[in-house]
Amino acid sequence: xxxxxxxxxxxxxxxxxxxxxxxxxxxxxxxxxxxxxxxxxxxxxxxxxxxxxxxxxxxxxxxxxxxxxxxxxxxxxxxxxxxxxxxxxxxxxxxxxxxxxxxxxxxxxxxxxxxxxxxxxxxxxxxxxxxxxxxxxxxxxxxxxxxxxxxxxxxxxxxxxxxxxxxxxxxxxxxxxxxxxxxxxxxxxxxxxxxxxxxxxxxxxxxxxxxxxxxxxxxxxxxxxxxxxxxxxxxxxxxxxxxxxxxxxxxxxxxxxxxxxxxxxxxxxxxxxxxxxxxxxxxxxxxxxxxxxxxxxxxxxxxxxxxxxxxxxxxxxxxxxxxxxxxxxxxxxxxxxxxxxxxxxxxxxxxxxxxxxxxxxxxxxxxxxxxxxxxxxxxxxxxxxxxxxxxxxxxxxxxxxxxxxxxxxxxxxxxxxxxxxxxxxxxxxxxxxxxx
Length: 436
Description:
The protein is α/β, with parallel strands linked by helices. The protein is 34% helix and 26% strand. The protein has helices at 13-24, 26-33, 65-68, 86-95, 105-122, 139-143, 160-172, 176-185, 194-197, 200-214, 233-241, 303-322, 366-376, 406-416; strands at residues 3-9, 36-43, 60-61, 75-78, 99-102, 126-127, 151-157, 224-225, 244-255, 258-269, 281-288, 292-299, 351-361, 381-385, 394-401, 404-405, 422-431. This is Homoserine dehydrogenase.
């Protein structure tokens, strides 16, 4: 029976999950593949810590070059994370003719062009199902099952930490800081959660999804990115009063020769399927011109779901090796040579409804001042909530607008924030009613 050798660089949480699958499901994979997968070498700076798996010490090394320069290793699983040395490892593996499987969304978002160009030139595969939405199969359906469709939108709840925090804030009324602390203690959030709560992790994933769906390069730096740290539990309660949930949503759209690519807190109708995605779960919703709406929902992170996605890519590459057809499906669904060059729409051009919250002194005429400035910027009010009065104190004024250009919203709020009666910076949340 033919044997296909695999090298693993990065023996952390996901790497441990990969080893578990190699050990526990070897017979299943062999039966389905018709060949034997052999985990020949594992490289990590720490090969001493007990990961709860039993391994022959001879396959462990602290030198990644033992994998990169081993001519018998057919493919390399990169689970180091981050930009460097992951980029160096991947580029060297490609130069040595090895196929790549990675879960590294940050690497692909920033250095995908370089990596994919090198892989095409060398004739090797780069697979990254685990880089977006963990264990949920998203990349393969876009490249394979749905590839005859023109995609109009791609929407994603792509960060379990943020979704857990927003779910708790909405359902239990807890404050952001308290829920974040609980999430860290429960292992749902990192000690430094900045990439998660400020939307950076989600933007990395959206850069991949928009390029896949629309056949154009979307640079990470061109994606508008806003996190959830300014949200109050009051915002989620007010949203529910208006019939909405607030989610940190990745939004990709195409139309009129431009691409929209943005990540920000978004109010979505409470009846929409994405509003029902709670806790640490993720979801991706696609709209194709023939298939219509398709939603993929499941565990977006964690050792076992993510390792499952990694090994799915390993099996796919192994099948291509066995049949002599590497690069059967280009990494991004089509060769980068066939990508269209489409600009990303500036946020100032966005037309949307908006939720506005102001903190102002409770004085006569405050609402008239606010509404007057909004009117001067051609922003009309759809509805409003003003809680019980607190004479001499600070009150929240919540306004829902009709559709307006974002440039007008920003200009109006900058003017309102200069009013003497304002006691905190105004907050706005975009509303998406047409989600497909």
